[in-house]
Give the backbone structure.
Amino acid sequence: MLFNLRRSLTAVVLFTVVCGFVYMLAGTGVAQLFFRHQADGSLTADGSTLIGQNWADVRCPGHPLGSCVFHGRPDDTGPYAADPATHTSGGDNPLVANGVKGESGATNLGPRSRALFEDTRALVAYWHALGVDPTPDLVTTSGSGLDPDITPADALVQVPMVARATGIAPARLRALIARETQPPALGFLGSPFIDVLSLNEALAKLR
Amino acid sequence: MTFAATLAALVVVLALTWRWLGSYMAAVFEGRVQFLAWIERPLYRALQTGPQREQSWRRYAESLVVFSAAFLGLGYLLLRVQGHLPLNPQHLGAVPPALGFNTIVSFVTNTNWQNYGGETTMSYFSQIGVLTVQQFVSAAVGIAVAIALVRGFSRGNSATIGNFWVDILRAVLYILLPISFVAGIVLVGQGAVQTLAGPVHIHDPLNGVTQTIPRGPAGFMGSIMQVGTNGGGFFNADLAHPFENPTGLTNFLYMWLTLSIPVSITHTFGKMVKSVRHGVALLVVMAVIFGGWVAFTTYAEHQPNPAVAAAGVQQKQTGNTEGKEVRFGDTTSALFNVTQTQTSDGAVDSASDSYNPMGGFGLLTGMMLGEVTPGGDGSGLYTLLIYAIIAVFIGGLMVGRTPEYLGKKIQAREVKLAGLGTLAMPLVVLVLTAVAVSLHAGRSAALNAGPHGFTEILYALTSQGNNNGSAMAGIAANSAFYNVLGAVDMLLGRFAILIPALALAGSLAAKGVAPASSGTFPTDSPMFVGLTIGVVLIVGGLTFFPATALGPIVEQLSHGRLF
């Protein structure tokens, strides 16, 4: 028994070194050497293309509601961060910010939850006030609370709103959406999507 | 259409993996693969052991238990002092005692239930030196026990079942490390983060928002957590987080990694007992049940979410989008979560709590079947072999003969051990659920009201009792009550099946091999496959139907009601 304990302690140290530190440090080294951009978080000058941002509060001159950019999913939790003091409201939810500060995650509201029903109804009303008939993605939150993407359909319903606020012709916006649409990986894994940050960066160049 | 292509691609890559990895693993554990012998030898010297020093089942079990206990102690200590250790750019303090205990039990038992948010609780040191280490070791322990049980069938009149230290070292060196390293590189190439630098602060002039984005070595943790059927991710959102699971391709890769060892080990089993047909029979049992659950759950998730529909949103094309990521879509997300609950993995790429009632039912019942379809690394095979022993016993009763499996007579001792192995999990899960719903501390943790609140509690204890680790994450389980209750659940769920499995290995290895006669019930036939599927479904159904009736079933039937 005592011999077994001593041997176990030796094994614990060996495994901790090999499976923990050697593996991770070698992995980090290879990752930083070959894929530095991805390994650091796919950062651009404006943020990360993998992390959703709040686009709801963007105001345009002459237009009272924030709508001269495309919005993402209305995620209300997330690290970036549900904190009114720093004005970095998490995700893109114009109505609620009830997430745990600094943590990614979903609302976890059940399929017959009254709270989910009321949140959704309020989001539908919010979109109607902007003159948009929302798709399901635009009134439901994602699994991470950070979804950086929307579907082409989610972007197309926002075209009249963005066209009104920016004065760019709807046809040009639709062409922009088509350009920014990324196919599923290898053509069939997942769904077609648009990265909202890239879309708004391209839109800023048109403005 | 793309979903059908995804399914087809998954079947093809798994078939190739079954063929190749299955026979490779057999070669590894029979000592025929030696290209890393130069690393093995000094490690055996340090541990004063080697392939020639075989152990009886008792010695094997003793080594396993003492080794796990040593890791529990050291891991707990490291979590408690992480504030004083290096690799802590966010200056996070000690993990609190109850949470630390729950967490280390969770990782040592291959559960990876997480009562913490990774990015706000764990330093890089803890993620690397405690959690990632266990993702390798707990998977290796599961594989070792399965191989020991296979040796029980493949050997005759033997007092020993192999050497625990050799088995776990080989599992790590030859199987887990190489696969995770290569997969880790692919994941990072697709966009998973892998850095030891701390969070990044970025101001976006387009919307005036300043973001603080946590980062860390998530990519290489992601690969081993899936290969090892662990499932405990770096970030709180786990595999829904774009930094862990950035694209449709990584989502597919994660499913493949999770299923690869539990599926392939049926081929390893077939090779080692010199009857590949027996391995195929077990694979078919797994595939039939898995396929049924995939169809059921993806269909359920393609239906509208009732609360969202009540708000007047038409969801015909999209299905239930609440808690799902755009880049994966509804059906692939449901497929993903089914793969994670039918293995012991438990990672999720979408919020199980927001699944439609029958979608949640599919995830919950996947775990309640004992995680044998295909189950966790090793644990799936040894638990399914226990069910197979029950099936030959029932088959033997029907035809009035002493049951045999692979030439081994299944007698009173084996049936008792198998009975213990099948009943331990339901007993633990149901008793602890009853305890939780009887106490205020248990009931008050649920986020959702009505039957869904009960489902959250039942799901939590089912997940931990099956060493799965997925959650209906609305439950606020980071309390002293749930941390301790969950730790008990996980320890019993792991060791009350694992130790009978080793005892079974010992008792089977000691028996002689009886030649098959005309009266032998063939255990590689479609009849036997059907019988085993029946046993799995009936045992799971009878024990858990009343509990699920109070949760997802009543929720499904509550048309037009909100809670």
The beta strands of chain A are 43-44, 47-48, 149-150, 194-195.
